[in-house]
Amino acid sequence: MKKIIPGLSLAAFATAVLLSVPAANAQYPQQGPPPPDYGHEVWAAPPAEVQGVHAQGFHDGVEGARKDYENHRQPSVENREEFRHPPVPHHDREAYRDGFRRGYQTGVEHLMRGYPHSY
What we know:
Elements: E1 3-5, E2 8-9, H1 10-26, H2 52-70, H3 81-84, H4 93-112
Antiparallel strand pairs: 1-2
Protein name: Lipoprotein
Keywords: Signal
């Protein structure tokens, strides 16, 4: 058998390497599922007085702010497609936009306040 290191065969070396992999992984505990409220921050919930289409707009505004933050974009509610072209019937557009604006502002204040930005 070919010797890699004096006194250690290729088969013995390969066996030692393969047996050390599970031991190396065992030192890190297995990560469990995220907590039940993960991604559902209290600050992101619409205020109690916000209902219906207004609440839908608020939620979409928070998500729009989150997307702008994650993509390092300058915050601007007018740049959001959902604000400019609301996905609601024509008669609900102003209520949706009002909720969207409030949600977007809430998201920007929470996500971007005090954090360094690269936009």
